[in-house]
Design brief:
- The protein is an all-alpha fold.
- It has two domains: 53 residues, no CATH class; 60 residues.
- α4 runs antiparallel to α5.
- The longest helix is centred in the C-terminal third of the chain and has 30 residues.
- Helix content is 72%, strand content 0%.
Length: 113
């Protein structure tokens, strides 16, 4: 059995036994979603993360956060332009999330027999 599978099994076992329940950041990580991914995707995402690359949705969330901060600090004349940019980025995020949701529905659908 390869090392990653051993580690994965031990993490799952610890989760079932409640060993992580008393950690200060309990609930901050959803490992179940991680383990639902096929192993080859987990490896690909790990490589991308190590390279400092993130999914489009994460990048858009960062941009929304940056624009919200800018809006809070902006003078009144600049606020309409920032609000417009914020609305555009939120729309992009909605589209990206919908695309991801649809891809999951297609990949999770049972295959025809």
């Amino acid at each position: 059995m390869e090392f990653s599978r051993i580690a994965e099994n031990r993490i799952r076992e610890a989760m079932r036994e409640g060993r992580f329940d008393s950690l200060p950041a309990r609930g901050a990580l959803d490992l179940e979603e991680y383990f639902k991914l096929p192993p080859e995707l987990r490896m690909a995402y790990s490589i991308l993360k190590s390279a400092g690359l993130v999914p489009e949705e994460v990048e858009l969330l960062r941009e929304i956060d940056r624009l919200q901060d800018a809006l809070a600090k902006a003078a009144e004349p600049a606020k309409p332009a920032i609000r417009e940019s914020l609305a555009a980025v939120r729309l992009k995020l909605d589209v990206a999330l919908e695309r991801t949701r649809r891809q999951r529905v297609v990949t999770d659908a049972p295959s025809p027999r």
